[in-house]
Amino acid sequence: MRSAELTLGESTDSSIRTDWARLAEAGLPSLATHTSPSNRPHLTLAAGNELAVGSAVQDMWGGLPLDIRFSGVVVFPAGPGKYVLARLVVPSAALLQLHARLHEQCTGAYANTLPDAWTAHVTLARRIPGHLLGPAMAALDVLTEGQCMAARLWDGSTRTTTTLGVTPKV
Fold first, then answer.
1. Looking at the domain that runs over 2-164, which CATH code has it been given?
2. Can you spell out the DSSP letters for 66-77?
């Protein structure tokens, strides 16, 4: 597989590595355990087994550095019972433009990395078993406290809701 990626600035890289360390310290799958010198936090723009980039891609990085903002955590399927855990990146106009320009200059990209199908993210763990997703979220300190106060049934055909059970008094 080949990929075109954006690497992160020092403080952003450190923040993602902290996430990796939290997962590893909790005994969970983490990219912290992948010790290859090429392993570093990154944002993949295009990937594919047959990915080929034109020579014009050498000239398209003048807009870097590019500010990014994270929004939350996302889970992608990665085979039976396994998942990828990642930090979502808010797709700014500048990032989307850069991504689209890159794809104008390359062929062989996986469909899920193409414009209009791509989810901007930075991976934290690969092949994490489903039963460990809850502990992984807790290790990342991404859960917030709250309450579920009532239940309802949504009927899309009539666009109506029906209360289920008794609504507690607040």
1. 3.90.1140
2. ----EEEEEEEE
Q: Report the alpha-carbon distance of residue 164 to residue 166 in Å, rounded.
A: 7
Residue 165, sorted as left (phi over 0), alpha (psi -120 to 50) or beta, turns out to be left
pTM of the model: 0.83
Domain boundaries, the chain: 2-164
What is the pLDDT tens value at each position of the chain, 170 positions in all? 889 999 988 889 989 999 999 999 999 999 999 887 778 899 999 999 988 888 888 888 888 888 998 888 999 999 999 999 999 999 999 999 999 999 999 999 999 999 999 999 999 999 999 999 999 999 997 755 555 557 776 766 676 666 666 655 65
